[in-house]
Amino acid sequence: MSAPISHIIFDVDGLLLDTEKLYTQITQGIVSKYGKNFTWAIKSRQMGKKETEASKIIIDELELPLTVEEYLALAHKEQEVLFPKVDFMPGAEKLVRHLHKHNIPIAIATGSSQHLMELKTRNHKDFFSLFLHSVISTDDPEVKHGKPAPDIFLVCAKRFKENPSPEKVLVFEDAPNGVDAAHAAGMKCVWVPHEEQDRDTHNHKCSLVLDSLEHFVPEQFGLPPFNFL
Description:
Elements: E1 7-10, H1 20-31, H2 40-46, H3 51-62, H4 68-82, H5 92-101, E2 106-110, H6 114-121, H7 125-128, E3 134-136, H8 151-158, E4 169-173, H9 176-184, E5 188-191, E6 208-209
Parallel strand pairs: 1-2, 1-4, 2-3, 4-5, 5-6
């Protein structure tokens, strides 16, 4: 019998916040100036990675005449405008508030940077205060390697005061790189992939694959059920 879930780690982009379409919009706006197209095949490779790693994938794949620093300067200019307006993904707010209400330890593990997290969460401070801690891998010195390496989830689990063993941790992810990282960390994973993602590539590494967080049933993982009273 597998160990019961005691702690939960959430990714942010495309899982809790509807930022992935904004990333796509911003990226396409940049690469189109060079006659290039930002495809899903490229996006799926760079989702979940540290900001600098994700940018290098785009630059190399599309042969853009930009350094990582130049590319990020262009992207950040647009992000400053768009990210503070971002809203929740379906089911995200309900699930997180439910887990917090029942004293389930929850934390964040994202490939984002501190500055971008501040932009994205500016209008959702109350919601993000429910998490015990956040590992923001672009700026975290303990995270040596970004997703798909397991570093971010192992660091995040270690920072819970209980320091739970990996098999007791459940990870929620939307990106294939994140699923790989959770699997490599020895943790259970609920995958909520983008509609364009081929699910056959990673469903064997997950405990559950969902179309939306709205469809998550907590008691399937021994967690308190939603109370509709």
